[in-house]
UniProtKB/TrEMBL annotation:
The keyword Transferase does not apply. This is 13066_t:CDS:1. Residues 1-23 form the signal peptide. GO terms for molecular function: copper ion binding. PANTHER family: SUPEROXIDE DISMUTASE CU-ZN -RELATED. Pfam families: Sod_Cu (PF00080). GO terms for biological process: superoxide metabolic process. It comes from the Eukaryota. Residues 43-165 form the Superoxide dismutase copper/zinc binding domain. InterPro entries: SOD-like_Cu/Zn_dom_sf, SOD_Cu/Zn_/chaperone, SOD_Cu_Zn_dom. Keywords: Signal. Gene3D superfamilies: Superoxide dismutase, copper/zinc binding domain.
Length: 171
């Protein structure tokens, strides 16, 4: 039962930093910010967010890299995962609050690509698919244009990432 109650959340505020990207095309993505959500209870692995700013278009984008090494034990159904509005306090997932949803879209809305602008910004599994287990692991990437490093309503800073059971319950 303790394993079922274990939390598989991570604080995005862990490893946030800015740096120059030397390999980026000149005048395009010239700055980056990074955050790493590290999972150690129930699921082991990381979700990395690498933010870019395009000076020409004045737009942000975020490369999301999922690297779960173990713990996804239900292979066929897939695990929903979301950015939640608050950091986790203690071992209680409910302290994460709801999904990052500044437009008040609600959890009842079914996010379907290619209309990602209509989705909750924090609904990563709705926008890019649930985490499908492959021998307990998952590796996937996506580029998100709706999460932000500068807009306080859409920011990743001081948030948490939660991976849910396939039935959407907290671990």
């Amino acid at each position: 039962m303790a394993v079922l109650k274990s939390i598989i959340t991570a604080f995005i505020t862990l490893a946030v930093y800015s740096s120059l990207v030397s390999a980026a095309p000149e005048g395009t993505f010239n700055t980056t910010r990074n955050a790493v959500a590290t999972f150690t209870k129930g699921v082991n692995g990381t979700i990395t967010f690498q933010g870019y700013y395009d000076e020409k278009t004045k737009k942000e984008s975020t490369l999301i890299t999922v690297d779960i090494q173990s713990g996804l034990d239900i292979p066929a159904e897939g695990y929903p995962y979301h950015v939640h509005v608050k950091p986790i306090t203690g071992d209680n997932c409910t302290t994460a609050g709801g999904h990052l949803d500044p437009k008040n879209i609600t959890d009842l809305f079914v996010c379907k690509p290619p209309n990602l602008a209509e989705c909750q910004p924090g609904d990563l599994s709705g926008k890019y698919g649930k985490l499908i287990a492959d021998n307990g692991k998952n590796k996937t990437t996506a580029v998100d244009e709706y999460l932000s490093w500068t807009n306080p309503d859409y920011t990743l800073l001081n948030r948490s990432v939660v991976i849910h059971y396939p039935n959407s319950e907290f671990f």
